Amino acid sequence: MDTTSQTGTADAVVDGYLRADFPWYSLDEAWTGNRWLAPVGTSPDGTVDYGSIGHGDEPARSYGKQDPAAESRRYAVVVTVARRPGRRLGDGTGILDATSVSSAAWLAGSGLLAATELGPMAREMRQNWLDQQSTLAWDLADDLDGPGWSSLTLPVNGTPQPFRYRESEYGWVLAGDAPGVHLGAYGRGVSAYALGFSTVTDLGGYTG
Questions:
Q1: What is the DSSP pairing of strand 35-37 with strand 48-56?
Q2: How far is residue 76's CA from residue 142's CA, in Å, rounded to a whole number?
Q3: Which side of the chain, N or C, has fewer Cβ within a 10 Å radius?
Q4: Full-prediction pTM beyond 0.70?
C-alpha cells in the first residue's frame, strides 16, 4: 500500500479547507463518532467556494455491484457554502452567479444522490437516473418555500436557526443560513431532528 500517496492526498484535502476565506461548520460536540473531509469545491479561478464535512460512515461508491452493508450505513454530511455575490472571473472569461441557500440545498441534494446505493446497475443507466434526479433536486432547491419542503429549527453555535427540510426514500436534506455562510446537510440513518451545528475551530480531528 502506498501510504505516502494516501498521506499526500489527505494533506491536499485539508489544505483546501485551510485556504478558505469563510468559516467551516460541522456537527457540534454532541456527535462523538467518526468525522471526515470531502474535497472542497472551487470556482474556475481557484477560489474555495464550498466543502463537505462528513460524520459517521463514509458513503460507499461501489457502483455496479450490490453492497450488503449499504442499508446499515449511518452518516450526516454538512455542506458549507461561502456567501458570494455575483462576480466576474479575474480572467474575464465569464460571470459567476451569487450563492444562496438554494445553492446549499442543491449541493446537499446532489451529494445525497451521489451517495445513494442502487445495487447492480449499468453505468449508463445509473447516469441517466442521476441526471433525472439531479434535475428534480435543482427544481426543489430553487423553490424552498414550495410544498416539497417543511420547516425545521436547529441550533447553530447554540442559537436556534430556521432551516428548510425534506425527506425522500434516499435520505434527508436541509438548508439554511449560518453566520457568514449558507449551510446545507444531508444524511441517512441519522435523525436530522437531533442535530446541532457549530463552527470548526480545529481540523486536526478530521481525516481527508
A1: antiparallel
A2: 22
A3: N
A4: yes
Q: Which three cell numbers stand for residue 46?
A: 481557484
- Dist. CA 173–CA 79, nearest whole Å: 11
**Which residues 6+ apart lie within 8 Å of 23 measured at CB?**
80, 179, 180, 181, 199, 200
Asked if 166 and 172 touch (Cβ cutoff 8 Å), the reply is yes
Residue 133's H or E segment, with its range, is helix 123-141
Q: Hey, what amino acid is at 21?
A: D
